Amino acid sequence: MNELRIRAGQATASGHRVDLLPGVLWFILADIIVFFMIFADFMMRRAGQLAVFDQSAATLNVPLGVLNTLILMTSGLFVVFAVNAAKAGDRGTTRRWLLLSFVVGAGFAVTKGLEYSSKLGQGITMYTNDFYMYYFTLTGAHFLHFIGGMVTLAVLWFLVGRQQINGRLLNVIEAGALYWHMVDLLWIFLFPMLYLLGAR
Length: 200
Fold this sequence. Notes:
- By secondary structure, the protein is mainly alpha-helical.
- It is about 90% helix and about 0% strand.
- Helix 1 (about 1-50) packs parallel to helix 6, helix 3 packs antiparallel against helix 6 and helix 5 runs antiparallel to helix 6.
- The chain is elongated.
- About 25% of the residues are buried.
C-alpha cells in the first residue's frame, strides 16, 4: 500500500514537471525572439547612422558593463550549484546557494542604477538620439526581466525553507533557474552590441 502511494506521489510530481518546464521554455523562447527582433532593428538603424551610434557607444562605461557581466555570470553559476544541491535533496545547501546568487545579483541593480544616474545627470535620455533610445529601451526591458529573476530567487529561497525538496519543488527550482539563465543570456548579447560595437 505504501509503495502504491509513493508511486502515485512520483507520478503526480512527474505530471507537474511535464506541465511546468515546457511552458517556461516556450515563454523564454518567445521572449528571446522578441529581443532578437529588436536587436536586428538596432543593427539596421545603426547602419544608417553609423557615426551617431559609434560616438554614443563610446560614452558608455565599458568596465562597468564588464562588471555587470561578471556579476550575472557568477550569480548564474551559483544558481547551477543550487540546482545540483536540490537534486541531492540538500535543503540547507540549496538555500545558501540561492541566497548567494541573490546577493551577488543585487550588485547588478546597484551598478545599473549608477549608470542610469550618470547618464541622466549628463542630460542624456532615450530622446537624445536613436542609439540612446535603443540603449534605454533594451537595458530597461532587460532590467525588468532581472527584477523578475530576483523575485524568483527570493521565492525559491522561501519555498525551500518551508518544503521538502520533492519532484514538484525540484521542477519549480529548475524552471526558476532556466529563467535566470535567460536573463544572463540576454545580457551576453546586449553588452557587446551596446557597449563594444563601435566603442573606442
